[in-house]
Structures are given as C-alpha cells and as structure tokens.
Records
---
Amino acid sequence: MDELRSVTADDVAAARAGFLAERANVVAKNAVTASGIRAAARVPEALAANALTFDVEVKQGDRCDQERSGRCWMFASLNTMRYRVIRRYNLKTFELSQAYPLFWDKLEKCNWFLENILDTLDEPLDGRLVSYLLADPICDGGQWDMFRSLVRKYGVVPKAAMPETACSRNTRDMDKYLTRYLRGCARRLRESASAGVGTEDLLAMKKEMMGDVYSLLVTCLGEPPASFEVRLRDKDDELALSGTFTPQEFFSTAVGMDVDDYVSLISAPTADKPFGHVYTVSRLGNVVEDGGVRYLNLPVERLKEVAIAQLRDGLPVWFGCDVDQSYLRDEGVMDTAALDLDGLFGFPVEGCLSRAERLDYGESLMTHAMVLEGVNLDADGRPTLWKVENSWGKDHGREGFDTLSDAWFDEYVYQVVVDRRYLTDEERAAYDTEQARVLAPWDPMGSLARAR
C-alpha cells in the first residue's frame, strides 16, 4: 500500500524510460528548455487566421494604456463612453480621465469594506468570510455594475481635468499602504465592539477612518475636480464644445449615455447556475447605497448574438474574459488554435477540463475586461473572428488591438454588457423582476477584472 501512495524509484525509472522512448518528447524538452512553453507551443498559422479586417467595425480614437494598474474594467468602460464623445463632436481622438474614477472607486471600496467589517463583527476572525474580506479589500479590479455606480454618483471628466499620477500609473504601493491601514481599521472596529462600544460610536469611528482614507487618496492621486473648463476641437479644428462643467454635467452633455439601460450578461454553464436566471454575489460592490452586482446568466451563443446586434448599431461592447488562456500576448491573438500545448506535452493539458469544469475546479474566471469593436461573419451570419480594443497601449498587439477567435469566445468569454433593448421580452422580464440568487463571495462569477 505504501508503494501505491508514494513516488518510488521504480515509478521514476518507468516514467523516464517512457519519456525517452518518444522522439517527440525529447524534441519538446529541447524546445521548451531553450525558449519556454508558449514559444515552443506557438502555432504560426494562427496569426494568418487573425487578420485585422472586419465585416462590422466601430472606429475608435488612439489607444489607451492602463500601465501598471489593474484598471482594465475602468478603461473598458471609459472606452465605450469616449467613443460617444468622439462620434458626437467629430473628434480625431479623446480620452476620459481614468484617475478620476480610480479615486472614487478606492474611496467607495474602503467604505464598502468597513461596512462589511461592521456587518461581520460576530463572525470568527479566522473564519472563511472574514479572512476573505481581509485578503484584498480594495484591489484595482471591478465589474461593469460597479463602474455604473461610480458614474451615477460622480460623473466623468476629461483626462486633462484629472491627469495620471505616479500612483495611478502604478498602484502597487498605494494599494499596499491603504490595505494595511484598512486592516488596522478592521482590528480597531472589532476590538472596540468586543469591548462593548455601541453601533453609533462604531459608525463615528468609521467616519473618522474614512477621513484618513480621503487624505491618503488625495496625497496619491490629487484632488478630484468639482468643476473644470472644457474646450474640444473637432477634426477640422473647429470649436465643438466649450464651457465650465461639473463631472455630472459633462457626462450628461458630452457622453449622453443612459447607464441604467445597460445590463450585465454572464455565461456560466455550471450546474449551480441554471440559464435564464438572475444572480448576484454576496459582499461584492463598491457604492454602499447602490447595492451590489446583478447578472443574467445566458448561453454563450446569446452573448454573441446581442454583442453582434449592438456592434451592427455602431456601438462598442464591454466584455470580460479569462485573458491569459491560449493567448499570444505579443501578437495580440486569443485563439484556441494559437498554442498546441496538448501536442507539445503529448497528453491533454488544456483539453483536460470543459468550460463548466474549469469554473467548478478553480481553473478559470474573469480576469480582464476589454471592448469588442468588430466582428467577421460567415455566409450564414455566424461570427468567426472578433476585433478587441485592449488597454495596454498602442505598442501592444497590433497597434493596441487584439483579435479573438470565435472558438476562444466559446471557451473564455464570460460576460458582456449591452443595451437592454437587445434582450428578448422574457430576458428583460427576468433581469428586471426576478429575485436574484445569491452566490458566495468567492464564486468565480464574483471575480474582478484586473489584468495588467
């Protein structure tokens, strides 16, 4: 029995003999040890199948760069919004401030975290829930619903009104020290409650803590503008928009997007999430008074259909995916045929789990948010290839763009955000009226897009 439980010398000898008996194994070893797994598994024909020409396409301004931050969900959201400004005022390019929502998201996440600490005072410190809350309370990541909450409350501003800082370009140290302070706040609140301090006094302590949070954020990011001057010139150098605006006024005037019309659709084919129903995630959100997230779970084919419908109407589509899977990052190619890992190793590695099984067994979740800006269709109108605007700068991929094969969409796209008018009557009714089923905080559909 011990031999069955242990790795024995005979096991190693047999495995070595089996490896050396196959010529392909030796070739693979030489290639991988010299150049790495992805380079050795790269399929060159995949690039030819991912050309940047599209049947349906939305033209955007210059590429944006989130740099060393996990703000992809913000960049994706702002990229769908800036497109409206570019189109409305006939601009060559335009960029909304990404530092501005970063400031307010951090502030709101800190308040959300402290509210959760106050709500879990009776939970054990070493229990799963409190441990989860303490693990990464104010990470850069987020979801569309969280961005919508920020826009509702704070509006948006042009990049010139609140430019990037060293701490927005690289959020690591800001996040590190803010997290440390918040954990100290959690200790003070829990110990005060144990000592008999009442609810009103605990809330007063929290208000004082939030003042410190504001101070730290202003130190790192600068103070968000309450109002600002705008002068936008169009492609012909004519003045297209000028005046003084508050952030809410600028969003209403320049962007003119009804964020409440946009709904979040997910596709999680797991047994615990039947299609056609609405879900939320416990403890996930940022703006306390706005609540958490709300998803309608649909088959992946429906996500494609509504995304194509919105693209045909000339509007880009926010989407979330597991970006690092089957990905040629330098070339900007997401394609299940781009890497032949199973052929390289000689047994199923990528192919050992289905889409549902990857979610159930912790292999996959949404890691990155980007924007769909184009699609190729076959003779029957089915998608074959998608154009993607990333937020990693113009030097990434092909001038800042990626491509996404339809087979890759089937496997690794988990979320799209579209105007509710593209849903069926039945889907709208479910989204609007159904009591949301609550998922655990650590459910894969509660992951926050934050790849950098």
---
Amino acid sequence: MKIRHLLLAISITALWGLNFSVIKLGLATVDPFILAGIRFTLCALPAILFIPKPDVQWRYIVGYGLVFGIGLWGVVNLGIASGLSPGIASLVLQFSAFFTILLGSWIFKEALSRYQIAGMGIALCGLFSIISIVDGTVTTIGLMLVLLGALAWSAANVINKKARTTQVFAFLVWSSAFSPIPLFTLDFALNGSTGYHALWNQLDYRAVLSILFQVYPNTLFGYWVWNSLMKRYPVSTVAPLSLLVPVFGLLGSALIFNEDVSLNKIVAVALIVSGLGVGLYGQRILNAIFPRAVQP
C-alpha cells in the first residue's frame, strides 16, 4: 500500500474512533434517537436528490437503513447516554466482527475455523475484564446496549453482503433515508415532546459540531474512502487497520473527557484486539511466521 493511502486509512480509523467521543458531546443536549435521526437525515439529504438509486432491491435498502440507523447507531447512542464511556463503547462495538462470523455460519453455512473460535475466546476474556471495571465508565445497561448495537452491525453486514452492491456510496445515502422517521418516532414514543423542546431550547455549538462531524467526515467521507481503498487493495491489506478504531476511541475519550486509562482497560483492549486479530487473520499470521516449504 502506498504511504499516502496508508496514512489516509489510519486517518479514517482515527475519525471513527474519535466519533464516539463526538457522539457524547452531542448527547449533552440532544436525545440519543434524535441525534441519530438528524445524522441520517443529513446523510440522505440533499445527496439523495442527485445520486441515482443503486441497482439493489428495495428490501435491502430499507432493511439496511433500519438496522444500521436504529439498531446500530440509535442503540449505541443510547448506550453512551446510559453511562458507558466512549472509549469502552468503541471497544465493545468491535464484537460485531464475531457476531458477523456467527451469523455467517448460520445463514451462509460458513464453517467456523479454529482461529475464529480461539479469537472469540480471547475477546470474551477482554469483555470480562471490562465488566470488572469499577471507575464509573462502565454501566451494565450501557454495556448491554452497545453489545446489542454490535449485533445489529453484524446483521447490517449480512444485509450488505446479500445485496451485493458495488454502488457503496449510493447504497449508504439511499438507505439512510429510511432511518430518521423511525428514530424520531421512537424518541417521541419514549419521551413525548420533551426531547424536541430541549432540542429547540438547548441546542448549542457542541451539538451542531457533533452532528456535522458524524455526517460528513465520519459517515459519508469515511465510508467512501474506506470502500475505495478496499477496491484498490486486497481486503487482507486494508481490513486489519480497522483494529486501530478502539485504540483511537480510548485515546479520544482520555483526551476529551479525561477518561482514566486503567490497567483493566489496557488489558481489555489488548485481549479484544488480539482476539480480533487471531479470529480474523490467524491463518495469515501463522503462514507469515511459519511459511510453508516451497515444493520443487
């Protein structure tokens, strides 16, 4: 990979990691579902007026929009608002990789490898390390909600795989159009008009910057660049860099909110990232360390 592309990919993982802290800044004055609803409204508009519908069945576009918008980011916002720190949220969300593997084995009949099973075991040890954290940055409800968001992300990955679209940006824009109304409706059902009154009276520059960051650099630009790199280089070259997301997530939370980076958190990061590495790339790592003898 060219140096400029490598630096660009690392920059995207930094944006994605920092995004969790940016979400928390927005949640200071905006309800979780409303914040997600505004985010996906701006992801869809006005771009949808200029970008043709992707050549994908409507059920995939609608399904992806609902699962990605509500099940993933609506629920993750709720988890952070429930007390889970942005750094821990960015780490726990990486369990989506294992949920995707498990869903793939069920839906697509893909066999689980010994490396995937070992990786899940290592990552679960990291999750137990998170549960033992007692510094106020971990709440049970927040942890469960982000794990639910990770499951939703894996479901969105399955929908994306079944859709088989090559028009990634158009698919993201059009699917985003189906997230806002359910998100706004959910907030009204749970909180009545309170969240909307607060939005009108308490919206500040931090919330505005949070929304703009989530929409443009993080979602539209980030996913466009990442998928462009995935097309240019082998998946095995680009995908491992996503393991940096929770590292930047924890660093961002430490810098912005002075989150204490305790030994338990360092151990959790090491175990979960290692588990992801073993589960997703174990065979490649083994082959690199112990290359097979070349047959004459």
---
Amino acid sequence: MAFARPEGEERVSGLELDLSRQLWAYATQPAHALIPAASERGTQHRLAVTITEAYFLGAKNIGDADVLAGIAADYGFERAEAHAIALDPIQHKRVEQEAGRSAAAGIRSVPHVIFGGRAAIGGSQSENEIALHVQEAAPRSFSKNRKRAY
C-alpha cells in the first residue's frame, strides 16, 4: 500500500519502479559519505543518481562499502579509496549532523523541496502537485501579466 503512490507517479514519468523488490532499508551513511567526495571529481550528481538507481531499481545494499566501491569505480574513485570513504566514521558523523540540522529545520521526508522560501512539499508528489507549488511560489514579477527585462 505504501508503495502504490510513488510507483504510480514514477510510471507516469516513464520509470518502472517496483519498491517491493527492495526488501530491506539500509543505512545510508556510507552512500552519503561518498557522494560529496565525488564533487572534486565532477561526478557527484551522476554518482548520486547511480547510487539511487542501484537502491531503488537494482535492490542493492547501498549501506555496503563493497557495493558502493564497485559503483564509485566508474566515477573517478579507486575501489580502496571509495571503500575507505564509505566506512570513515568522521564522514558518518558529518552525515548524522546534517541529518540533525535537517530534522531541526522541519524536514521529515525525502524529497523535501522548498519553493520560493514559502511553500514546501515533502515525500512523493505528482508532477501536477509540484507544478502547482512552483506556480504558487513564483513571485509576481514572473507572472504572465508582467514583463521584466534581465
């Protein structure tokens, strides 16, 4: 039941998501430790997408440093280096601190998007709901009735 909405929204977007394939929820600290390290390599976004796909589409254990090292090898990392970063307790502490700051700011779900500092949505939302929030948050200067030179 809990998977019906996100799976339905993904099908509308053209992605065949089957969350029942992923039988476990894994610790994400290793993945969240590794992703920022890819920034200096220019592969951060692509690595994050691949890790997300590995978990949601491939039912992989993204809490396993060996799994992450295998993935990261395609994004500028040596396997041993990625393995070490994924297991680094200092990086895990940083991830926990960031999660604490997010929770203190009221973020309770992923994704969580704030539009124009006014409207926030969390969790799985339809494309239409997201578009509505964007329209509501858009400042009047961007409305159809006014023109603005840039």
